[in-house]
Amino acid sequence: MQKLKIIENDPWLEPYSAALEGRHQHAVDKEKELTGGKINLSDFATGYLFFGLHRTEQGWVFREWAPNATAIFMVGDFNGWKQSPEYQLQKTENGVWELQLPAKAVKHGDLYKLIVHWNGGSGERIPAWAQRVVQDEETKVFSAQVWSPEFRYKFKITDFKPTTDPLLIYECHIGMSGEAEKVSTYNSFRESILPRIAKMGYNCIQIMAVQEHPYYGSFGYHVSSFFAASSRFGTPEELKALIDEAHSMGISVIMDIVHSHAVKNEVEGLGRFDGTPDQYFYADAKREHPAWDSLCFDYGKNEVLHFLLSNCKYWLEEYHFDGFRFDGVTSMLYYSHGLGESFTNYADYYNGHQDDNAICYLTLANRVIHQVNPFAVTIAEEMSGMPELAASFHDGGIGFDYRMAMGIPDFWIKTIKEKKDEDWKPGHIFWELTNRRFGEKTVSYAESHDQALVGDKTIIFRLIDSDMYWHMQKGDTTFKVDRGIALHKMIRLITATTINGAYLNFMGNEFGHPEWIDFPRSGNGWSHKYARRQWSLVDNTKLMYHYLGDFDKAMMDLIRSVPGFNLAPIFQLWDKSNDQVLAYQRGNLLFVFNFHPTNSYTDYGMLVQPGKYKIILDTDAKKFGGFGLSDDTVEHLSLYDPVHASHNKEWLKLYIPARSALVLQREGSDYTYSED
C-alpha cells in the first residue's frame, strides 16, 4: 500500500502508519460493502426517500425498520387513534415493515404515531424517519404530522457556493434570536436577524437546535427526531425560505448536526424503538453516555450507518444547507468519550482506545456530504487533537474541512481569570492562536455559545462583571468598563486576524451581550428572560454596546476586503515581552498590539518592510468607545537603517496607547494570495 500523504506531511505519524492505514482501509472496505461497488455512497444514502411516509401516484406508502417488532399499527387523527386492521403494517424483509394506503386515508396536517408490539410488550413510537414532528401546546405530547402541503417550497437559488476565503461564521439559535421573552421563529429570524448579520459582514450562519428535540433547554443537543426540523420555530417551508433568503444575501447556512448521541426518550426518540436496547445503539456498557445522560449510536451496524448517512444527505438535499458542524466528535472517537484522557502525545491517538467504527462513520459522512455538494463545509467540534481529522480522505484523513480551535477560548478564559494584566505575554498569545497542525484548517474563536451558558461567563462579563448593570451609559463608565471594552476589542481582533481558515462568533457576543443564557426550566419559573437577545442595547447610541458592535463590523469589513485573507502567511515581526508589544504582518497589513495596562509608547520602533503605512483600524478610536489618543490620519514612513537594509527592513516609529491595537496598511504592495 502506498504511504498515505498525511504521513508524508507529518513524519511524527510514521510510527503509527499501520493504524492510520488500517483506519483508511476500514473506510474503503465499508464503503464498498455498503454500495456493492456499483453505486457511489451518495446513492446509498437515500433512506429518507424510502422510509417514512411518502405520497405516491396511488396514494401513500409508509415504511419503518423494526426487526424485533411482532406487529406495528399506524394510529392518528384519521382512525381515532385506534389500532385498526387497515392501518396495520406488513413485515417484508430485513426487518422492514410497510403499509400501502389510498389517497384519502390520511391528509396533510394529520397527527399520527406508531404502536409497536414486541414479545413481552408494546409502546407508542414516533417514526424514526419522520420529517415533521409537533408538540401539543396543552398536553406537551409529541406526534408525527403528515406533511404534504399543496405548494411545496421552490428554492429561488439552486447553485449557491459558500464563500470560504475566509469563512466568517455567526453562530445562532433561532428560538432565542428575538428580543421578546418567547420562542422566536424561522420567519422572524429571516425578517429581522438575517439583515443584521448581512450588515455586520458575516458570510455564514451556523444554526443550532434544528433537529427536533423534546427539551428546549437542551440547546438542541438531545435529539429525538433526526429528520424533522424543530417545529417550535415554524414549518419546513419557513426554514427553507430562511435558507433561501440567506443565500440571496451571500450568506451560507450550516447546521449544527448531532450524530454523537441521541436522547434517551423512548416515546419521542429512538430508545428501545422496537423493544430492544440495541436497535440503533450499543447494547453493552457503551450504550449510555456517562456525562450526557444520552444514548450512543452503534456505528458498526450497517443499518445505523444508512440512517445517519441518509440524514446527512437529507438536510443538504431537502433544505439546501451548505454543510455541518458535527457536535461532540471527541465523544465519538474514543470509547472513553475523551473523559479523563490527557492527549499529551501522538500515542494517545493510536493506543486502541479509539472507536474504529465511529472513525469509519465520520469518514464516510464526509465522503457523502462532499459527493452531494463538493462545496459543502464540514467542521468537527473536537478537543483531543486527533491528527488526521481535518485531512482529506484521499490523503488518508477523516475528511473534515475544518476543526474547531477549542483551545483558544479556553486559553482566553484562563488568561483573564488567572493572570494580572501586566503578566499577559503577547508572544505567548500569538503562539496559542497560531499553533496548529500543518495543512489543517481551523475555526478560530474567542468564545462560542459554550462560554455564554449559565454556570460560565462570557468574556465581557469576566472583564466588566457587575459594572455592566450600572455603568454602560456613555459618560458614566468606570475604569473596569473602559478596561473591559478595550480588551474585548483587542481579544477579538487578534483572534480573528490570525485565522488560517475561519472565524466564529456567537450571536450577540460581538457587542458584549450582557447576562448568560438560561433556557426556560423549573428552576427559573420557565422564564424566557435569559433565552433571548437584547438587540435594543446595541441599537441604543446612548449605551456603550454599540461601540463594540461597530468595531466588530469594521473588523469583518477589514477581513473581507482582502481576498484570501486566511491564506496569507503570518509573519511575526516584533515581540517585546517587557513592553507587552506584538506586531505581525499578513500581506500588506501590519497588526500592532500593546497589551500593557498603563504604558503608552511614543515613537515606538519596530522593523518592518519599507514603505508608507496608514492606520485603517484603531481599537482606541473614539467611534469604537476608545479615547482617541492617536491621530489616525497621519501617514507613517519607514526609516532607512543601513544595518538592516540587506534584509529589506526599516524602522517604523509609532505612537501606541496602552491597551490598544492598530492595523496599518502598507501602500504599493502587489501581494497576491493562492492555495498553492
Task: Give a description of the structure.
The protein has 676 residues and is an alpha/beta fold. 25% of the residues lie in helices and 21% in strands. It has 16 helices and 29 strands. The chain has an 8-stranded parallel beta barrel. The protein has a 6-stranded antiparallel sheet with strand order 22-23-24-29-26-27. Strands 3, 6, 7, 8 and 9 form a 5-stranded antiparallel sheet that branches. β23 and β24 form a beta hairpin. It starts with a helix and ends in a 10-residue tail after the last strand. Mean pLDDT is 95; it is low at 669-676.
Mean pLDDT: 95
Main β-sheet, in a few words?
8 strands, parallel, barrel
In percent, how helical is the residue content? 25-40%
Terminal-residue CA separation? 27 Å
Could you provide a short overview of the structure?
The chain is an alpha/beta fold.
Annotation keywords:
676 residues; alpha/beta; eight-stranded parallel beta barrel; six-stranded antiparallel β-sheet; 16 helices; 29 strands; 25% helix; disordered C terminus
Q: What's the structural blueprint in terms of helices and strands?
A:
Layout: H1 5-9, H2 17-35, H3 41-44, H4 47-50, E1 52-55, E2 59-65, E3 71-76, E4 90-91, E5 96-102, E6 111-118, E7 121-125, E8 133-135, E9 142-145, E10 167-173, H5 186-200, E11 204-208, E12 211-212, E13 225-229, H6 236-248, E14 252-257, E15 288-289, E16 294-295, H7 302-319, E17 323-326, H8 329-333, H9 356-372, E18 377-380, E19 402-404, H10 407-418, H11 426-434, E20 442-444, H12 459-464, H13 467-470, H14 479-496, E21 502-506, H15 535-539, H16 545-560, E22 570-576, E23 581-586, E24 589-594, E25 601-608, E26 612-618, E27 635-637, E28 650-656, E29 660-666
Parallel strand pairs: 10-11, 10-21, 11-14, 14-17, 17-18, 18-19, 19-20, 20-21
Antiparallel strand pairs: 1-2, 2-5, 3-6, 4-5, 6-7, 6-9, 8-9, 12-13, 15-16, 22-23, 23-24, 24-29, 25-28, 26-27, 26-29
Helix pairs in contact: 2-9, 5-6, 7-9, 14-16
